[in-house]
């Protein structure tokens, strides 16, 4: 190889601007600090979409929603919905919003039994699927996340909306979904 063979190499793409570099540096520092304290959930950490949502949820990241929509192919509204899931449940919440983690049959059956104990005088049957338990009569759903926690959702405007109150206990997550649904109906 000759000395000036490198002259024919294709140069790298454009360098990120200063604001983007600061965003990435801050994010890397935050993730490193979380990893050192064992507060970083490795299960959802390697999903590029969850990673993008985590950055968009920061005050500095919000201005990059249009660019993220272009790069991911998702509408900005969908990314904002995922940011809401992240704000309520961190990376596990965002991952559960994207897709519920598949539950083992025994784990799902046990979760359904626990939710039934918390239903009271509910009308209709529960619908259980791959890591989800839906109660159409009350307009609530819980989804299993990759971290083993159950994430609450409420129905509205033809979709399931993330709600606060993720818990290891499916019954507690179901109760959180009911509270969130009640607050939504009350306008609070």
Unreliable stretches: none
Mean pLDDT: 87
Radius of gyration using CA atoms only: 21 Å
What about the largest sheet? 5 strands, antiparallel
Beta-strand content bin: 5-15%
Helical run tally? 7
Helical coverage, percent range: 40-55%
Order of helices and strands: HHHHHHEEEEEH
Number of domains: 2
Shape label: elongated
Q: Report the strand count.
A: 5
Major β-sheet strand ordering: 1-2-3-4-5
Distance between the termini: 70 Å
Q: Structural class, please?
A: alpha+beta
How does this structure look, described?
- The chain is an alpha+beta fold and 188 residues long.
- It folds into two domains: 81 residues, no CATH class; 82 residues.
- Helices cover 49% and strands 12% of the residues.
- It has a five-stranded antiparallel beta sheet with strand order 1-2-3-4-5.
- Helix 3 packs across helix 5 and helix 6 crosses helix 7.
- The N and C termini lie far apart (70 Å).
- The mean pLDDT is 87.
Task: Write a brief caption for the model.
The protein has 188 residues and is an alpha+beta fold.
List the helices and strands and how they pair.
Elements: H1 18-36, H2 42-45, H3 48-56, H4 65-72, H5 76-98, H6 105-117, E1 127-129, E2 132-135, E3 140-144, E4 150-156, E5 159-162, H7 170-186
Antiparallel strand pairs: 1-2, 2-3, 3-4, 4-5
Helix pairs in contact: 3-5, 6-7
Question: Which features characterize this protein?
Answer:
188 residues, alpha+beta, 2 domains, 5-stranded antiparallel beta sheet, 7 helices, 5 strands, elongated
């Amino acid at each position: 190889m000759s000395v000036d063979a490198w002259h024919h190499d294709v140069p790298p793409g454009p360098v990120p601007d200063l604001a983007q570099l600061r965003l990435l540096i801050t994010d890397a520092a935050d993730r490193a600090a979380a990893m050192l304290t064992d507060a970083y959930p490795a299960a959802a950490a390697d999903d590029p979409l969850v990673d993008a949502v985590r950055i968009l949820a920061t005050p500095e990241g919000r201005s990059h929603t249009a660019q993220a929509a272009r790069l991911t192919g998702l509408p900005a509204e969908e990314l904002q919905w995922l940011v809401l899931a992240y704000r309520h449940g961190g990376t596990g919440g965002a991952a559960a919003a994207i897709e519920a983690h598949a539950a083992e049959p025994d784990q799902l059956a046990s979760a359904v039994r626990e939710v039934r104990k918390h239903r009271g005088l509910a009308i209709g049957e529960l619908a259980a699927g791959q890591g989800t338990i839906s109660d159409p009569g009350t307009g609530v759903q819980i989804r299993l996340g990759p971290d083993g926690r159950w994430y609450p959702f409420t129905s509205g405007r033809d979709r399931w909306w993330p709600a606060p109150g993720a818990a290891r206990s499916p019954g507690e997550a179901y109760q959180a979904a009911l509270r969130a649904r009640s607050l939504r109906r009350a306008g609070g």
